[in-house]
Amino acid sequence: xxxxxxxxxxxxxxxxxxxxxxxxxxxxxxxxxxxxxxxxxxxxxxxxxxxxxxxxxxxxxxxxxxxxxxxxxxxxxxxxxxxxxxxxxxxxxxxxxxxxxxxxxxxxxxxxxxxxxxxxxxxxxxxxxxxxxxxxxxxxxxxxxxxxxxxxxxxxxxxxxxxxxxxxxxxxxxxxxxxxxxxxxxxxxxxxxxxxxxxxxxxxxxxxxxxxxxxxxxxxxxxxxxxxxx
Length: 230
Prior knowledge:
230 residues
């Protein structure tokens, strides 16, 4: 039991370090972002909030999502739904189809929130129209429109919008965070975007450690104490 408690304390320290120490200080990221976007590494890769996921997106992919809208009002409505849901899933194991249902959509509307699914479903119908953003990386809107928008890129962008792996984010929060990723010159602020994504990754890693590592260790320690008393 004592060994389990010591391990638990170590894990809690790791969680605290992960949750509150982003990979790079935001000030450093912002400084790097001030470098001319024309010299940016468009191949720079970003991972999802669940960093162990194989889904990645390049800076070009991210910009190709962000440059197709300015407000969530342009894509938050949904007209396609699925109802083939497995209701027998246990807690923490929600059927992946759930977010696509009419029930989930109606809930998002009541909450004043836009969903990840809505962005996934509607992004390809939105043209890339932000000329200043395209020009800031030496490209044209036509070049971005000719490039496909991947599901992975949408998920990476939405993770940063949510600053977590949540599937719903308030309309105003989405618009505010998206606006913060663009500089006064209309270019993409890599530092601001990276900061949002780093918060999402830290939160998910910390939550996962607590759920799958710390909680079982605490339970094992308590069981050990009970057995020792018996």
